[in-house]
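Note to self: keep these together.
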Amino acid sequence: GGGTTGSGGQQVAQQKACDTPEELQACRVMTSTEQTWTKLFADQGQRYPAPVLNFYEGGVQSGCGQASSAAGPFYCPADRGIYLDTGFFRELATRFGAAGDFAQNYVIAHEVGHHIQNVSGTMEQVRARQSRMSQAEGNALSVRVELQADCYAGVWAAQNRDRLDPGDIEEGLRAAEAIGDDTLQKQAQGTIVPESFTHGTSAQRMKWLKRGLDSGNPAACDTFSGAI
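Structure:
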C-alpha cells in the first residue's frame, strides 16, 4: 500500500478509540512499532516522530486527498497518517487466503515502513527521481520503495521475536506472497505485465520481508542499489 501523493484537503478521519477487536489489534501493533522504531532511531542519535493511525470505513479524506476502502491501507506523507479500514483484514483472509494476526500486523508494519521512508527523506528523493522518468521506470522505482517497506516490516518483527507465535513468520510470508504484483495480476487478468508492477513480485516481497526478519537491522534494507 503506497498511498497517494499530493497535498491539500482537510483531515477528516479521526483517530478513533480502538474499540473493535480488529482496531485493538491494530493499535497494539502501532504501539509496538513505535517502541521498536523509537529505539532504532535512538541508536542513530535521532528522535522518532510517530505516525498517526486513522481508522475509517468506506471512504476518507486524508492530507493526500480522497481515498476509498478499495485502495486498501495506505500511508499519506502529507499528514504522516496511516489510514486503515479494518474490513481489509477480512479481505486479506477471504480473498487473499492470508489469515491470522501476523498477516494483519505485517500490513500495518509495512505502512509504518513507508513512514520511516518519509521521515528519513527517502520518499522525497524517490519522487524527485520519478518526475524525470518514464512511467515504466517510475514503476520500477516504486517496486524498490515497496520492497524496502516490506523489509522494514521484517525488521520490526525481528525486534519483537519474543512475541511471535509459531507459524507467524509463515503467515507473514504467505501474506507477502498473496499480494505480489504477479500473483494479483494473474488472478485479475490471467496475464502478467512486469512493467506495470508497482509493489514487486511475490518472490521479491517474501525475500525482502525475510531479509528484514533475518537481520533485524534497517541497514540491511537497501533496496535501491543493485538487483532486487
